[in-house]
Amino acid sequence: MQNELENLTNAKEEPHAYSLKELMILNAMKRVKNPFLNLTVADVAKDLKMGENLTNELFRRDDFPSINIGKTKTITLLAYLIWKMEKRQ
Question: Three-state DSSP class for 71?
Fold first, then answer.
């Protein structure tokens, strides 16, 4: 894992060698305190300014990278940011 991060760090030398997603992951890991923080349905609902019922439906979608921990639906901050960026395009 450390070697992969070092390789991504050298992406400035070869700008076309890495995808936008890989560069986003690298930047997020450098800037965010904990990119692997788990967000709940309430957190995502607040960010997207949606109701919790509609957000629960979002968490059930196949293209949304959420996981269930017990009965709690969660998504890592990094996966959420990548999903959100991909949906903007």
Answer: coil
DSSP 55: H
Cα torsion angle, 7, 13, 14, 19, sign: positive
- Which tokens is 11 given? 């992406």
| Euclidean distance between CA atoms 64 and 44, whole angstroms | 12
Q: What is the mean pLDDT of each run of 10 residues along the chain (89 residues)?
A: 56 63 78 88 96 96 94 93 82
Q: List the beta strands (DSSP E) in the chain.
A: 38-40, 67-69, 72-76
Task: Please tell me the distance from the alpha carbon of residue 42 to that of residue 39, in angstroms, as a whole number.
Answer: 8
What is the total residue count of the chain?
A: 89
Q: What is the pTM of this model?
A: 0.70
Q: Output helix, strand, coil percentages for the chain, rounded to the nearest 5.
A: 60, 10, 30
